[in-house]
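Q: I'm writing a short methods note and want an example of a predicted protein-small molecule complex. Could you take the sequence and the SMILES for zinc ion and return the bound structure as tokens? Please keep the output block clean; save any remarks for afterwards.
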Amino acid sequence: MISHVSRFIDLNNRKFIIRPKPEDDELLSSWLVRVARAHLTHTTSFTNMHFKEYKANIIWQRDLDIWCPDSLIKRLSFKSGYSENIIFNMTLRSLEGIIADKITGKTNTPNIRALGNYCHIKTKGGLMYCPECLKEDKIAYFRKIWRLEKHSVCYKHNINLLDRCSNCLTPLTISKSYEEKSFVYCYKCGEKIIS
Ligand SMILES: [Zn+2]
Ligand SMILES: [Zn+2]
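A: Understood, no commentary inside the block.
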């Protein structure tokens, strides 16, 4: 049962109680959603309570994986106990110099698909996924490689990556959930996005 927080609890100086291990090539946004879910709390309520300086859902209104400032990396490291390096490596900023000269998060980033932020809804399908990979995962998670423009096929399963729910055609917004389901269910219609 996910708690619906009706009263703001200040967890600003508290550490996370549960610290899921980042998976191989996992996106920061994917990991942070999993951290929130592990605490049985809605993602936005969780980050609003833990990060006073980024209240009002700011973290999810932006493209966290590109934008994540150093100050937030520090705070995530403090709260999770994982090194700043481990947190930074989950961001797409860690690919600076490899896929783009500069990744600032201020403008559209070359070679990375845009999410199309509209409030905290992602409208452009910039986060692609392989339904077979998600199905095989012991713990389902979203990969950094799925945000890269040149990468539209899963070479492991030989299928095209998908960029939206096959049922209602809504692009993914992994910080949102349908009722209390996990992010392998479309937040809009509740259909499972894995095979
Ligand atoms: Zn795959
Ligand atoms: Zn759907």
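A: Remarks, as requested: Residues 28-160 form one domain. Residues 165, 167-168, 170, 186, 188-189, 191 surround zinc ion (ligand 2) (CB under 6 Å).
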